[in-house]
Amino acid sequence: MAAPLDLDQLQSFCAIADCGSFTEAARRVNKTQSAVSMQIKRLEERIGQPLLSRDGRSVSLTQQGDVLYAKARRMLRINAEIADHFSDRDLAGSIRFGVPDDYAVRLLPVILSSFQRTHPRIAVDVSCVASEHLLAGMRSGRHDLIVFTQGTEQNFGELFRTERMFWVASHGGQAMATDPLPLAGGPSLLHLAP
């Protein structure tokens, strides 16, 4: 039977995939950049496949890296659940959480209230901004956790929900017959192709 994969190496690998940078990943996992590079080298040797594609300063996942990322995320989550279950310590600290405005008003008060009851020693710093700013904030380390709805990218974080979009117009209305169709929306609509 093969030796188990090193969770510490997987954590560094996922940090690189999340932020696209060895330097930022090293900061997130509290290691030197050379230590993280060595972990990735050993992980690639263990897997027998290249996992990351390096192009100058940018880093992206190879096809095999993409497969490993999804599975590694599950392993790290299960490991955290086991450690949390058997821990007798209360969690304490702070989380920098980012969410788009459209979720903040309706859902955030209920979620934060419930979270505060179960984790009273964790301070949550919330930023309500557009999704493209949340993605940039996650990459730069300004956010620890985000929910985003626009500007989705492959190999970034974990998809936990998708929603279908609908066009809605009134019966007998003239809006749908207008060409071009006039729209009002936030900054993310500016990125839509005609």
Automatic annotation (TrEMBL):
Location of the HTH lysR-type domain: 5-62
Protein name, entry field: LysR family transcriptional regulator
Family per record: Belongs to the LysR transcriptional regulatory family.
Pfam families: HTH_1, LysR_substrate
This protein's UniProt keywords: DNA-binding, Transcription, Transcription regulation
InterPro entries linked: LTTR (IPR050176), LysR_HTH_N (IPR000847), LysR_subst-bd (IPR005119), WH-like_DNA-bd_sf (IPR036388), WH_DNA-bd_sf (IPR036390)
PANTHER family in the record: HTH-TYPE TRANSCRIPTIONAL REGULATOR LRHA-RELATED, TRANSCRIPTIONAL REGULATOR
